Every structure is written in C-alpha cells, then in structure tokens.
From TrEMBL:
Organism of derivation: Rhizobium jaguaris
InterPro entries on file: Adhesion/Biosynth-related, FAS1_dom_sf, FAS1_domain
First and last residue of the signal peptide: 1-24
Protein name per Swiss-Prot or TrEMBL: Fasciclin domain-containing protein
A GO cellular-component term linked to this record: extracellular space
A Pfam family matched in the record: Fasciclin
SMART domains listed in its UniProt record: FAS1 (SM00554)
Location of the FAS1 domain: 37-181
Record key words, sorted: Signal
PANTHER family in UniProt: FI19380P1, PERIOSTIN-RELATED
C-alpha cells in the first residue's frame, strides 16, 4: 500500500513538472503561509514583508476592493521595495491629502484577471519579448522574460523583478516584487 502511495505521488510530481501545473501548496510570504482559499487582504495582513503595502492599501481605501470577487493579479511590493523610495515618500503618501496619488500608485500594481507567471511569460515571448499589462489604475506595465525570470518596467522607467510568483488567492494571484511600480506623474 505504501509503495502504491509513493508511486502515485511520484507520478503527480512528474505530471506537475511536465505540465507546469503546481500541485504543491502556496509558498510562505513574509514568514506567513499563504492560503489559496483566502483573499488577497486576508493573506497580505499576515506577511511581515508587506506591512507597508497593507498600511498603504488601508490609507487608500482599497481594502474592500481587494477583498472583492476579482479576479485580480497583484504585483505586491515588499517593505524593502517601499524603502527604496526617496526618504519621506511613504510617510507623505500615507497622509489623507495625498490619497489620490497613493491610490494611483497602488492601482498601478493591480491587473484585472488571474495572470499566472507562465501566461505572462508566454505572452511576452509571443510579442517579441515584451508584453503590456494594463492595470486597473490606467498604467501600462511592460513585462519581459529573461532567463526564465519576469521583469516589470513601469511608466517611469523603473524595473521590478518578481521574487515570488504565483501565490494563489481565492480572488486572484499575488506576485511579490522588489520595487514599487510608479505611474507617469
């Protein structure tokens, strides 16, 4: 019986590798397990690497939206990514009088749909190595694939790398990025 279970598990792993379908549980992000049956906000609040993002989402009034049905693809900058902004930027953006600017920046990290990394890579390869992602904030992010890794270029010319891909949520998917994506200002 045990040998049968081991063989079945080996077949599943082989099928997973052959098809690119992930059968394993979601990764941990910021030291917290991510659950595919929880929504984007329910998972994000547990990540110690995303406390700045969660505070910004709350300040912008986007919690209800990101708890909604979706599906959404969220490029989630880490605390370290926010720390790369000029000193004082985050504090300034979190002020109530800057809510519109903060909302614009945050919604430039969200794409309507459930875009897994493999589909973004496939689209970029099919379009001469570059694929335009239209965000719900009206921004265009250029996705490029190099050496199996996805790079995102924002409208300001900055680049972010996806450091953790395909974190499934009940209402979409999160891709962790190492830089805040900025719109044209």
């Amino acid at each position: 019986m045990l040998n049968t279970v081991i063989r079945i598990a080996a077949v599943a792993v082989t099928l997973s590798a052959a098809t690119g379908v992930a059968y394993a549980k979601n990764p941990t992000v910021g030291g917290a397990p991510m659950f595919a049956n929880k929504n984007i906000i329910e998972n994000a609040v547990n990540s110690k690497d995303h406390t700045t993002l969660v505070a910004a989402v709350k300040a912008a009034g986007l919690v209800d939206t990101l708890e909604g049905k979706g599906p959404f693809t969220v490029f989630a900058p880490t605390n370290e990514a926010f720390n790369k902004l000029p000193p004082g930027t985050v504090e300034t953006l979190l002020k109530p009088e800057n809510k519109a600017t903060l909302t614009k920046i945050l919604t430039c990290h969200v794409v309507a749909g459930d875009d897994m990394a493999a589909s973004i890579k496939k689209m970029s390869m099919g379009n001469g190595g570059e694929y335009d992602l239209k965000t719900v904030g009206g921004c265009t992010i250029k996705a490029t694939e190099m050496g199996g890794k996805l790079t995102l270029t924002d409208e300001a010319g900055g680049t972010a790398h996806i450091t953790i891909a395909d974190v499934k949520q009940s209402n979409g998917v999160i891709h962790v990025v190492d830089k805040v994506l900025l719109p044209k200002m």
